[in-house]
Design a protein that fits this description.
This protein is mainly α. It folds into two domains: 35 residues; 112 residues, Arc Repressor Mutant, subunit A. It is built from six helices and three strands. The chain has a three-stranded antiparallel sheet with strand order 1-3-2. Helix 1 packs across helix 5 and helix 2 crosses helix 5. The chain is globular.
Length: 152
């Protein structure tokens, strides 16, 4: 669906792009989650935190928030829920006792380690509507758009 806005052509094109990106991202995510539903009670934001900690190790909460594109306030709520479920914990950084690091608990590590391959496979299956070359081109274009928009 294209925009109903009737302004300058460049604005219409940009709005069409925004609509296409948003809808395709939403559809892509939903398709992957149909193939690999999130574990009971885990939100997509919580999954993002667990995934970042699995692949990057202990990190400050602010860095995790930047990685999953969540605000400081939203991150506090997400982390509180993960702590209640004993999936993450906070500990003092050894190099700077003022800084708190987030890390997976053994339960959190088990949950995300078992689930992540299912999610990755769900995304891979959903991406199969594009050729490998098309996937790579889309990745390159999305990165270019993201970097360009961020630098403005």
């Amino acid at each position: 669906m294209a925009t109903h806005y009737r302004g300058p052509e460049r604005e219409q094109r940009a709005l069409d792009l925004f609509i296409a990106l948003t809808r395709s991202s939403d559809s892509f995510q939903k398709a992957a989650l149909r193939k690999a539903p999130l574990p009971n009670g885990i939100t997509l934001s919580q999954f993002g935190v667990l995934e970042v900690l699995l692949h990057l190790g202990s990190l400050p909460q602010s860095v995790v928030g930047q990685k999953i594109l969540k605000s400081k306030g939203n991150m506090s709520v997400v982390i509180a829920h993960l702590e209640k479920r004993n999936l993450v914990q906070r500990r003092r950084a050894p190099h700077d006792r003022r800084q708190l690091l987030l890390e997976l608990t053994p339960d959190g590590h088990t949950l995300i380690s078992n689930y992540f391959p299912l999610m990755a496979n769900g995304f891979a299956d959903s991406a199969n509507v594009l050729t490998v070359e098309e996937q790579q081109t889309l990745i390159t274009l999305c990165k270019k758009l993201g970097v360009g928009a961020h630098s403005q």
